[in-house]
Amino acid sequence: PSPCEWCRCEPSNEVHCIVADCAVPECVNPVYEPEQCCPVCKNGPNCFAGTTIIPAGIEVKVDECNICHCHNGDWWKPAQCSKRECQGKPAA
Fold it and tell me: Among 16, 17, 27, 91, whose Cα sits 20 to 30 Å from the Cα of 55?
């Protein structure tokens, strides 16, 4: 069987197998490790701010004017961003 299957032999010589049900990963870039069934988030929970991957729970300055953050690894939701003053000019 694969790492996702668990099988047992019954006294009747039948084999019964179940397949793992993996939780949804809390990141946009999960990876599969050898001999592990479910994907893991090596860099922790994260989400997309445009095309940039940012960690969950902290504010990240993605460019001169925008600060973004994602909540609790809700990777399926894009980051929430807000414009800040940039280069001494008020946000537009």
Answer: 91
For 13, the token pair is: 């010589």
What is the distance between the alpha carbons of residues 47 and 68, in angstroms, rounded to a whole number?
10
CA-atom Rg of the chain in angstroms: 21
- For residue 67, the number of C-alpha atoms closer than 13 Å in the C-beta half-sphere is 7
For residue 83, which amino acid is it? Answer: K
What span, in angstroms and rounded, lies between the C-alpha atoms of 56 and 69? 7
Among the listed residues 42, 51, 32, 45, the one whose alpha carbon sits nearest the alpha carbon of residue 75: 45
Domain boundaries along the sequence of the chain: 5-83
What is the reported pTM?
0.69
Cα distance between residue 48 and residue 62, in whole Å: 11
CB–CB of 39/30 below 8 Å? yes
